[in-house]
């Protein structure tokens, strides 16, 4: 039965409907799901979302894929995406995402998933589809969006000038000046407009200034 289950479900992350469809030959598939959970053959991440247990897994499950499945519409952003893109040095344990819906937080057997609300107009800008082996995919913020979302979300920073923004980026977040200079100012400008944010306009101005400084030193 386990071989048939794995044949029917290709990915490591799957929902209740996929699981139910794979067990449709059973007279009481819901009872079988309960049995699989008790055996540890499958693990319930949250209601309706599962991964295979260690004995059935073919490859490591993706927390990024799970983040998109657990709550949507959402895309991975903020600290997790900043580390993913190599902008901040600290490893981030929680998978952080942004959503146009309500802010949510899910503590699961496979980790913590945090969703922060942003304006609906800003949500769709700067989202990439990242494809993994086996055709699995997840939505990830591009570096510009991840940083803009972080600046917006980080309240109480007291940023009122380019100098404040520069110190926040280089000292608080510890982002390398050279990495900041590679960010696309066009994308930052669109995000500032969608957010209607003075702070994000300051972010774009600082990135432009850092790029100009880098060009002078070449």
Describe the protein.
By secondary structure, the chain is of the alpha+beta class. It has ten helices and nine strands. The strands form three sheets. A four-stranded mixed sheet has the order 4-5-7-6, sandwiched between helices. The chain has a three-stranded antiparallel sheet with strand order 1-3-2. A two-stranded antiparallel ribbon has the order 8-9. A hairpin with a 5-residue loop joins strand 8 and strand 9 (137-141). The termini are far apart.
Provide a short characterization of the protein structure.
This protein is α+β, with helices and mostly antiparallel strands. Helix content is 44%, strand content 19%. The chain has a 4-stranded mixed β-sheet with strand order 4-5-7-6, with helices on both faces. Strands 1-3-2 form a 3-stranded antiparallel β-sheet. It has a two-stranded antiparallel ribbon with strand order 8-9.
Helix content range:
40-55%
The residue-averaged pLDDT reads 94
Based on CA atoms alone, the radius of gyration comes out at 21 Å
Order of helices and strands: HEHHEEHEHEEEEEHHHHH
Q: Treating each run of at least 4 consecutive H or I residues as one helix, how many helices? A: 10
Oligomer: single chain
Query: Which runs of at least 5 residues are low in confidence (pLDDT < 50)?
Result: none
Structural class: alpha+beta
Strand order of the biggest β-sheet: 4-5-7-6
How many E-type strands?
Answer: 9
């Amino acid at each position: 039965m386990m071989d048939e289950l794995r044949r029917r479900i290709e990915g490591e992350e799957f929902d209740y409907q996929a699981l139910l469809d794979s067990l449709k030959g059973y007279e009481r598939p819901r009872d079988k799901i309960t049995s699989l959970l008790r055996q540890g053959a499958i693990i319930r991440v949250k209601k309706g979302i599962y991964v295979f247990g260690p004995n059935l897994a073919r490859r490591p499950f993706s927390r990024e894929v799970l983040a998109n499945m657990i709550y949507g519409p959402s895309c991975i952003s903020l600290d997790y995406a900043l580390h993913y893109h190599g902008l901040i040095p600290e490893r981030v344990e929680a998978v952080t995402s942004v959503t146009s819906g309500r802010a949510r937080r899910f503590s699961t057997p496979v980790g913590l998933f945090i969703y922060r609300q942003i304006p609906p107009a800003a949500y769709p800008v700067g989202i990439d589809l990242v494809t993994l082996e086996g055709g699995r995919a997840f939505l990830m913020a591009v570096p510009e969006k991840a940083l803009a979302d972080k600046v917006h979300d980080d309240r109480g920073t007291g940023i009122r000038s380019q100098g404040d923004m520069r110190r926040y980026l280089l000292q608080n977040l510890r982002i390398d000046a050279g990495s900041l200079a590679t960010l696309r100012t066009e994308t930052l400008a669109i995000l500032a407009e969608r957010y209607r944010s003075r702070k994000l306009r300051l972010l774009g101005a600082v990135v432009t200034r850092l790029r100009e400084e880098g060009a002078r030193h070449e």
